[in-house]
Amino acid sequence: MTFTDYVFEFSSGLNKTAIIDKKNISYSDLYYKVLMISHNIKKINIVKEDKILLISENSPFFIESYFGIIKSGCTCVPLNPTLSKNDIEYIINSCNPKGIFIEKRFLDNMRNLINKDIKIVTEETLNNLLLDKECTNSGEEEIDLKNSVAVILFTSGSTARPKGVMLTHHNLCHNTNSIIEYLSLNREDRIEVVLPFYYCFGTSLLHTHLRIGGSLVINNKFMFPETVLDDIEKYECTGFAGVPSNYQILLRKSSIKDRNLKSLRYVAQAGGRLPDSFIKELKQALVGVDVFIMYGQTEATARLSYLPPNMLDEKMGSIGKGIPGTLLKVIDKEGKEVKVDDIGEVVALGENIMKGYFNDEEETKKVIRNGYLYTGDLATVDEDGYIYIVAREKQIIKSGGNRISPKEIENIIIQIPSVIEAAVIGIQDDILGEAVKAFVVLNDEVLKVDEKYIIEYCKDKLPSYKVPKYVVFLEGLPKNSSGKVMMGELK
């Protein structure tokens, strides 16, 4: 049994819509394509645990290929189509893939990176394939769920070479079950998808909604946020998931506050902290809709914790507690759990923790110790056990003997109505060691503010050593394909 078999266990024969894109695709048609791809992979002598790259935007081609590759017993390696040629060449050389499933429009830019021994499959190739009787009777692939790697997700290499996170079939099954449980997903759920499927948050939407027999609406046009709201209304979506920048844009650049999104049951946010002021705005804009604040890492198969919607007001700013089946702790440098309000590192234990980094035992040993994943995130714990992220260890600003969390300053700046986004870093200072520098994005439709205004605003709400010494205005913060701010580029 593979992860694909688990996902389609109860839905493979359903004559019900699974995917809404340019046309609707039923579960039975989708599973037919998955079987066809799996069978034909075996016919071209690509064998179990061989690596196969998948280069595609969100599309039926991605979904069919993804589950077909996993069904065959091979390891799927989804890649961002906009990765640099250097990164793709590095990944190809390190993975030694036997095949590449790629949208035809991306192929020309990749041809000189692909050696002649690698099998190439495009949408046109799939359209010419037929499923034969041998395929329908071929049975399930025998897989060691616990140890066989189903997927390798390469993390964005903003500061170094990309690292390949190895996720087993068991990792994927476990995390999918947990997310379904705490979101109370069921067959009637339909989610509007704007997150890329090559990103762990995006793939988790695929996994959960296909497992429960729900449906997904694909939208690759988030740069036009009104289309997202149109989709939610038109297709009566019950869910939406996004990273902070998605919600900031919807609240500042769309008509979300004036829409009647009556079908929405919940929205989910992860991929970084959404400032409290935006969370409050979101609740006011979507009255009666459950707001789930979540936290995770690729190394944890997407999800580590969530804050229940009924605790949002009481525990504003918290990432909640561990998801079902996952233990989260905040520990000091001696490995002991910290006292209330003391700062330590978040560590996690569970069946969702990655097998390790591909071909990088040294880095794996740094982050997985005694079964625990060391996240690199600094946090505090309150008296009820709720966790509050302070900062990434690498992002803490050390100024004049003080340790400063950039998030605290960002949350103050973002309260200014004219501000859409803010990012804070430390820069070298001959006297203080590091000085605070803020990057700010303003809303053109609101009265503009200047550097002096922002500094004075911060002086009124922060101790002097946390007030930015420098303020720079940008048209937009640099982000990776998953919507996360690339702090390294601001340096």
TrEMBL record:
InterPro entries per the UniProt record, alphabetical: AMP-bd_C, AMP-bd_C_sf, AMP-dep_synth/lig_dom, ANL_N_sf
Domain AMP-binding enzyme C-terminal: 408-484
UniProt KW keywords: Ligase
Any Pfam family the entry gives: AMP-binding
Gene Ontology molecular function, alphabetical: medium-chain fatty acid-CoA ligase activity
Protein name, per record: AMP-dependent synthetase
BP term (GO), one: fatty acid metabolic process
Start and end residues of each AMP-dependent synthetase/ligase domain: 15-358
Family statement: Belongs to the ATP-dependent AMP-binding enzyme family.
